[in-house]
Fold:
Amino acid sequence: MFRYVHYEVICALLAVCAALVSAVVVFGVEGVPETPGGADRAIVLGLVYLALVAGFGVLTVSRIKWFGEGRDFDKAVPLRDPASVLPTRGEGYRNCVNVLFFVLLAASAVGGGLFLERDLALFPLVFVPAWSARAWWVARWERRHGLLLWRGRIRTQPLEDDQYLYSSVRQPEHSARNA
Structure:
């Protein structure tokens, strides 16, 4: 079991790490690529791309029928006994890390950067805005509804055909302000 938000954040971090690894390898072997139109143009295009992909990421967790996952959040199955099935804090983060996914991203970026075009070393970064926007939107949904969304399977509490998530009640945060 792992939190939906944590999975999205970890995927974004894995993509950044894969891009860093591949950039070091590819740019170390091939050299750093130059921008023919100047850095200003590359920055503007990067920001436009960032906005478009982040918007797409938010659409994928919206309530749009046949497109967004937002309707699945409302159908999340409440956990009967959260204390017995939910992971501890560190264990929950470890469950989110998909090493095979990281290796696939890094290997494809290194291969593309070395054999096709140097710029492909940064290919994993194309996913970061969408995953970050999805994490933000789901965290916002969780706060508004007072629930936490969980992914995974529980044998004693199976999901129906159209259900993909579990939910648990969000516990209040303990901080110095609450004391």
Observations:
- The CA atoms of residues 24 and 36 lie 21 Å apart.
- The two ends are 31 Å apart (CA to CA).
- The beta strands are 2-3, 77-78, 147-151, 166-169.
